[in-house]
C-alpha cells in the first residue's frame, strides 16, 4: 500500500485513499448508474476554449485543521505536474521514486502534459488551463492522483513517497470521512471517523482494513464473523455463505475486469499467435479457474 495518492497504482492503495482524501469530483457508487457528482467543487464548472473554471466548497477543512481553498487545488495540481516531471524541474534526488507512474494518465502519447497550469481566481475559484482539448478531463479529476492535498503539511516536493513507512496521524491529512490512525505492514490499517467531516459524519466509528493473503482464510473469517465485509469472496464459498444466516451475499453483476494473455507480435507471427489461441482450453478456464464467474470474449 502506498501512502501518496499521486504515486498510487493499485486497488489496495485506492481502498486506503478513499477513506482519507477526496477530489473535486467523484462517481456515486451508491447509484447503479454510477453518475459523476461534485465533491469539493460546487458545480461542474464552465469551459472557455482550453480553460475550465470551477467554484469550490467553502465549508471544508483538512484533518490537520488547514482550510480547503483554491491554494489547496493549485498545490495539488502543481505537485502532480512536478512528480510526473512535466515541468522538467525534478532532480535525480528530489523524490524517493522519481517520475510517478501515473504520468501516462496525465499526458498525451507524444508526452504533452494534459494540464498546462492552475490559476487562482479567488479564494474559492480556480481555472485549469489545458494544453489541448481533452474529452476525459472531468473523469481524470476523479482519479486518486487528483485528490486534494493539504499544502500546510507537506512541501511541494517532499511527501510520503516511501510507501507507508513514514505514515502517522500527523503526516496524513485529507478532507475525507476518516482520519488515519496507524498502519502495521502486512497486517492492518486503522482509521477513525472524522467528527468534523463537511458532510454528515459516518455512522461507523472505526474502520480496519485487514490483510489476509490466503483466500480460504479470508472467506473463513467472513463465515466466522471475524470480518464484517469481504470484497470479492471466492465463488466456491457462495453456497455456504447463502446458507449462513449471519452473512448477506451481494452479487453485483457483471464487472469490467478483463483478463487476457498478451503476445509479442515481433517474436510470434500471426500463425503462431493463432495456434496458441486455438490451443487454449477456454471452457476449462471459465469453469475451473474462474469457477463460472466469467464469460469468454470474442476470440478464436
From TrEMBL:
Q: Which positions, given as ranges, span the membrane? A: none
What's a single GO MF annotation on this record?
A: peptide transmembrane transporter activity
Q: Note the InterPro entries from the entry.
A: SBP_5, SBP_5_dom
Matching entries from Pfam families are given as: SBP_bac_5 (PF00496)
Q: Which SUPFAM superfamilies match?
A: Periplasmic binding protein-like II (SSF53850)
Q: What processes in GO biological process is this protein linked to?
A: peptide transport
Domain Solute-binding protein family residue range list: 40-299
PANTHER family per UniProt: PERIPLASMIC BINDING COMPONENT OF ABC TRANSPORTER
Name under which the protein is recorded: Solute-binding protein family 5 domain-containing protein
Name the species this protein comes from: marine sediment metagenome
